[in-house]
TrEMBL record:
GO MF terms held by the record: ATP binding; CoA-ligase activity
Keyword Ligase: yes
Protein name (database record): 4-coumarate--CoA ligase family protein
Pfam family, one: AMP-binding_C
Family per similarity comment: Belongs to the ATP-dependent AMP-binding enzyme family.
Domain (AMP-binding enzyme C-terminal) ranges: 436-512
Length: 526
């Protein structure tokens, strides 16, 4: 068993809005959130006051403890206000990908029985369609303004009393992001107030922040990585978060230069751009102090190339998953120079880890030996919503969460993730379940069988590649027809990028797809 070298941290038994904003009065006029496109700024005093007024407005509208509110928005400076207002009103927040199709959105709404939606006016049509398909949604609010809809802006003038909701941080769910776990369709991950707040305290000794630090939030807040690293953690310590709605390289670089960004939390595709794109040379990025990459594996050579170009310490990595609130490992800021290339970091405070044999799961392995990574600590999720069997398959009776990732630890405690047991495809940090795409492919009348694996494209992104068996009656089925069939029914990040037609899908006697054989047969782009 491997244990963190940091001292344990006591559980943070506070609602997440209090755990993050308890020092808002101290930070006062310090900018908390800045819109990276137009410069609109919210101070800590405003963020604290605004979220309390919006909480009162939500409560007046009927939001009650135990309700689920779906937050459906790209990154905006209103997103944190909406999130903390909802939790203060007693709701659990399920975050929704803004590019989800109405059908995908409806599945999530129905699965978690969401009664409320907060969205933005450009996404209203999608939200309305999803609400119609799911049923049970009482009202759709907007962060900005739209005719016929109550706005969070209007709620700032609410005179109703601030809701006084009794929250049990250890049991009540604060966030309900959706994750496919190690396999299968997306499931609601129940993260309590205590789990999320304690994970912030666990990360603090390794990743310090405070007034004067400026973090650029380009990765989405709806993803647990963005929610933690770009929203909750910096706002807890008085840092300033500069918000961008999406990644556009020129806008991204301009924001670093113009807002004097000091810290970047990114995914590998952004590291690639920083390392290689000629546009980078046209901007002054000298304010940057460090870069941390997570959400997907980062090649050590690419990390080094990025650091050299920016004149920074080596790019650090972090490791975790939605089911772990999400952090378990990070390269500490004070150890970035000495961290071995390719490591995802060391155990954060209060966290234990085992590496177990893939052939004999009860056997613990020593340093240097690769096996499945198991994690135990206060950040382990409460479970999957409504899926006790899936929860039991993920977390054993001793509290160990089985990550589905393969890795090893060196003699100094650095973790290296070398492979994945799980078959999820991670496209730019977003999870794509092969089973979901396979089921969709099989709805095409000309597809007899199908399998999907992840392959790496020329940009270093893992993308879905479909292996399709044509129906005997459709020998002329084309790649473009298959790609279009999927593209019309899923969010952009889930789209199949390549199709290979084969005579039969290799399967085990149990019927399980033998993806290893497909990977062996596929020659990845160089």
């Amino acid at each position: 068993m491997f244990r963190s070298a940091y001292a344990d941290v006591p559980p943070v038994d506070l609602p997440i809005h209090d755990a993050v904003l308890s020092r808002a009065a101290e930070f006062g006029s310090t900018p908390a959130l800045i819109d990276g496109t137009d410069g609109t700024t919210l101070t800590y005093e405003q963020l604290d006051r605004f979220h309390r007024r919006v909480a009162a407005g939500l409560a007046e509208a009927g939001v009650r403890k135990g309700d689920v509110l779906a937050l459906h928005s790209p990154n905006t400076i209103a997103f944190p206000t909406a999130f903390y207002a909802a939790t203060r009103a007693g709701a659990s927040v399920t975050t929704v990908h803004p590019l989800a199709t109405p059908e995908e959105f409806a599945k999530q709404l129905g699965d978690c029985a969401a009664r409320w939606i907060v969205t933005v006016s450009p996404l209203l049509d999608s939200a309305h369609r999803a609400a119609e398909l799911a049923g049970g949604v009482r009202e759709i609010f907007v962060c900005d303004s739209a005719s016929g809809h109550r706005s969070l802006i209007d709620m700032l003038a609410c005179t109703a009393p601030e809701p006084a909701v009794g929250i049990d941080p250890a049991e009540d769910v604060a966030a309900l992001p959706y994750s496919s776990g190690t396999t299968g369709i997306p499931k609601g991950v129940m993260l309590t107030h205590r789990q999320i707040a304690t994970n912030l305290a666990q990360l603090q000794p390794a990743i310090t922040a405070g007034p004067g630090d400026r973090v650029l939030a380009v990765l989405p807040f709806f993803h647990i990585y963005g929610l933690t690293a770009l929203m909750n953690a910096p706002l807890r310590h008085g840092a300033t978060v500069v918000v961008l709605p999406r990644f556009d390289l020129e806008q991204f670089l301009a924001a670093i230069q113009n807002h004097r960004i000091t810290a970047l939390y990114v995914a590998p595709p952004i590291v690639l751009a920083l390392a290689k794109h000629p546009l980078v040379a046209e901007y002054d990025l000298s304010s940057l102090k460090y870069v941390i990459s997570a959400a997907a594996p980062l090649d050590a050579h690419l990390a080094a190339a990025c650091a050299r170009r920016l004149g920074l310490p080596p790019v650090g990595q972090a490791y975790g998953m939605t089911e772990l609130s999400p952090g378990t490992h990070v390269v500490p800021l004070d150890l970035m120079e000495e961290a071995p290339p390719g490591t995802v970091g060391k155990l954060i405070a209060g966290t234990e880890m085992r590496i177990v044999s893939l052939d004999d799961p009860g056997k613990d392995l020593a340093t240097g030996e690769s096996g499945e990574i198991l994690i135990r600590g206060p950040q382990v999720m409460k479970g999957y919503l409504g899926r006790p069997d899936a929860t039991a398959a993920m977390i054993d009776e001793d509290g160990w969460l089985h990550t589905g990732d393969v890795g090893h630890v060196d003699d100094d405690g650095w973790l290296f993730v070398v492979d994945r047991v799980k078959e999820l495809i991670k496209y730019k940090g977003f999870q794509v379940a092969p089973a979901e795409l396979e089921a969709l492919l099989l709805t095409h009348p000309d597809v007899a069988d199908a399998a999907v694996i992840g392959v790496y494209n020329e940009d270093g992104n893992e993308v879905p590649h479909a292996f399709v068996v044509r129906h005997p009656s459709a020998p002329d089925l084309t790649e473009s027809e298959v790609v279009l069939h999927v593209a019309e029914r899923v969010a952009p990040y889930k789209r199949v990028r390549h199709v290979t037609f084969i005579d039969g899908v290799p399967r085990a006697a149990s019927g399980k797809i033998l993806r290893r054989e497909l990977r062996a047969a596929h020659k990845e782009p160089s």
